[in-house]
Write a structure and sequence with these properties.
218 residues, 9 helices, mainly alpha, 2 domains
């Protein structure tokens, strides 16, 4: 019995290693070639596995992309939770520090942000599965949680003034910040030439505009 349990465990570990390998190879290919130019046959070839093996793990490249997107959000939520615990002060002060941190993280996480932009552009239909949809929505809630928290605190302590419903304000700040970051990290060199400015600074300007619009008297 002990030997069987050990073999079963070893088999499961091997499956997990193979799955992670497929996901990592796919992410690199999506970022290098683009989602539309990558197919399952390409992924199997680069991952050095048969297509039959690949389809045992994923039914489509959309399902793989969903797995990558979930991993990206899990990575961000982990970093986010760790940083939020260090914040103190009024709701406005926490929001200001948090937005500053997000701004600073953009360069570090540029490839992951670029992938989320690709994901948003290409995967606009149904989710690959009900489970992935549920998990993704839960992660989005986690990502937006600090905005809800800091805005609510700020309104209560008087450091933030707004006539906009907190739910809409939190979602607007979160989505606007990510959308602009996606655009800048994807086309920064082109934007610098087209706009004749350092496009990376646009994100910082956006952050300051949000904060100036929300600042109360406290």
């Amino acid at each position: 019995m002990g030997t069987k349990i050990y073999r079963d465990l070893e088999r499961e570990q091997s499956k997990e290693i193979t799955k992670k390998h497929i996901v990592e190879v796919s992410k690199e290919m999506f970022l290098e070639k683009g989602f539309s130019q990558t197919n399952m046959a390409d992924i199997a070839e680069v991952a050095k596995i048969s297509r039959k093996t690949l389809y045992r793990y994923f039914s489509s490249k959309e399902e793989i992309a969903m797995e990558i997107e979930l991993d990206v959000f899990k990575t961000f939520v982990s970093l986010q939770d760790e940083y939020v615990l260090t914040l103190f002060g009024t709701g406005y002060e926490k929001l200001a520090k948090y937005l500053e941190k997000l701004d600073a993280m953009i360069d570090e996480l540029s490839q992951l942000i670029r992938f989320t932009g690709m994901f948003d552009y290409y995967l606009v239909g149904e989710y690959p599965s009900t489970q992935s949809q549920k998990e993704f929505i839960q992660l989005i809630e986690k990502v937006d949680e600090p905005f809800f928290e800091f805005l609510t605190e700020g309104v209560k302590d008087g450091s933030i003034v707004t006539d906009v419903e907190i739910a809409y304000l939190a979602r607007t700040i979160s989505n606007s910040f990510l959308a602009l970051a996606q655009r800048v990290v994807t086309r920064q060199t082109n934007l610098n030439e087209e706009l004749n400015i350092d496009s990376r600074k646009i994100i910082s300007v956006q952050r300051e505009l949000f904060l100036k619009a929300l600042k109360g008297k406290n």
